[in-house]
Fold:
Amino acid sequence: MSMLLDVQNLESWYGPIKAMQGVNLTVSAGQIVAVLGANGAGKTTLLNTLAGVLDPFKGKIRFDGTETQGLDADAIARRGLVLVPEGRQVYPFLSVADNLTMGAYARRDKRVAQDRAQVLDWFPRLRERLNQQAGLLSGGEQQMLAIGRAWMSGPKLLMLDEPSLGLSPLLMREIFGIIARIRQETGVAVLVVEQNAAVALNHADFGYIMELGRVVAADSCEALKAKDDVRDAYLGVAGHGSSGTAQRWKRKRNWR
Ligand code: ATP
Structure:
């Protein structure tokens, strides 16, 4: 599989706060890669830096053969590295149809209509609500629209920031099911940040775990699921015969 995204030694700050450092990460063509970690671990910072919303202080981002660090967000999205931000951020006063059209605003090719049909095929609920204001959709439907709008911009790599946030377990599985379907049908790669480790590890091929702005583990999802520390901290399955939550959190983790 050819390498689509290659991130080396990436570091980002918010003013005086170092939010992420020494991050190395790769995504191959057609791969689903998950980034897991607790609140404040630096996951959103990573995606925002890759998308050009935030300029890295250090490090290299190579996407589809070009270095993209320092380019502005628009230029990066036009190259096919497209972010679906946390909290959906659809245009609430525009209709579903207009939100999809906005996604394709920078495109000049003739496949826009085909991509729109594709989105409505993946998300039939959006078809039923094409003329409805996006702000009136349910949380799950807004997430579908956010993914659909990102699709309309012609991604080669789709980055999703916590797509399951605030969704019921059923909707969460539905959204991840569609993500898997998108990859399967189109071969587009996905980089997904997720708090719900179980659902992410079940759908991704490879996973990274971040803590305090650093990557502390990187492995295939199968291997991650088998690690005691991952099971303990993220999957709610106690390894080591440990008793009680407090004791589990106190134990030093080496992510082996
Ligand atoms: P969450 O799941 O809560 O979104 P996260 O893993 O995505 O967490 P980030 O949002 O990337 O974490 O935050 C990483 C660190 O940077 C945290 O310490 C956070 O407090 C800090 N941080 C994030 N955004 C800002 C900001 N706009 N200004 C200052 N510090 C910030």
